UniProtKB/TrEMBL annotation:
InterPro entries: Acyl_CoA_acyltransferase (IPR016181), GNAT_dom (IPR000182), Ribosomal_N-acetyltransferase (IPR051908). The keyword DNA repair does not apply. Residues 18-187 form the N-acetyltransferase domain. This is GCN5 family acetyltransferase. One of its GO terms (cellular component) is cytoplasm. Keywords: Transferase. GO terms for molecular function: protein N-terminal-serine acetyltransferase activity; protein-N-terminal-alanine acetyltransferase activity.
Length: 219
């Protein structure tokens, strides 16, 4: 079985409305097709790497290739877990959680996108709450970081709702223009105070070596 050699395929996060997990090949194709239909206002770029500035078929292919790339170059010291978000068994977006030397830093970062048809329904909050539960409750993280450009008010609102605090800014050149990224940081104490979404995690323990920690470090 694949899970014997790469147990992350058995990892499941479940919230009241959502399931987050790695996709099957057909589900990954659906995710790419969802992205090709649009994930943001074309006049504003919410991503540091403007991967949506392509023809729809290229956007879909880039989602698929990036998913394979991050699984293919996985190492416990530097990982990026790109979980597909399912609602009623249909892909609605992607939620990423990253760890760099996590066993030492005990810090994760997150990023995400949602198909336009699924925005404005509280899904962004619920899916980020899921990976924060994975990080803090499942992996014993101490801090989580995120960031969004100043025009990405929905992402910044999610961060504030979940307890993040401002952590500085970064000036970026996006599409040849200045965009200011607002950095956000969430401590374990603030996560505890703001956690409202019930989350269950399945299949985590065999994944721990791939995430750079031992079971003892999660407590």
């Amino acid at each position: 079985m694949l899970a014997k050699h790469f147990p992350l395929v058995g990892l499941r996060l479940t919230t009241p409305r959502l399931e987050l997990r790695l996709p099957s090949p057909d589900e990954l194709a659906e995710l790419g097709e969802l992205a090709a239909k649009g994930v943001h206002d074309p006049s504003l770029m919410p991503f540091i790497v403007p991967w949506t500035d392509q023809a729809p078929e290229a956007v879909a292919r880039s989602v698929i290739q990036y998913h394979w790339l991050r699984l293919g170059d996985w190492v416990p010291q530097d990982w990026s877990l790109n979980l597909v978000v399912f609602r009623d068994a249909v892909p609605v977006g992607q939620q990423t959680v990253n760890g760099h030397d996590f066993g030492v830093t005990r810090e994760v970062s997150t990023g995400s996108w949602l198909g336009k048809a699924h925005q404005g329904k509280g899904i962004g909050t619920e899916m980020r709450a899921a990976v924060l539960h994975l990080a803090f409750a499942g992996l014993g993280a101490e801090e989580a970081t995120s960031g969004a450009f100043e025009h990405n008010v929905s992402s910044l609102a999610v961060s504030r709702k979940l307890g993040y605090r401002p952590n500085g800014t970064k000036r970026c050149a996006i599409r040849g223009n200045l965009s200011v990224e607002h950095k956000m940081r969430l401590t374990r104490a603030d996560w505890e105070r703001h956690r409202r979404v019930p989350v269950s995690v399945e299949g985590l323990e065999p994944c721990l070596p791939l995430l750079g920690i031992t079971a003892a470090q999660t407590r």
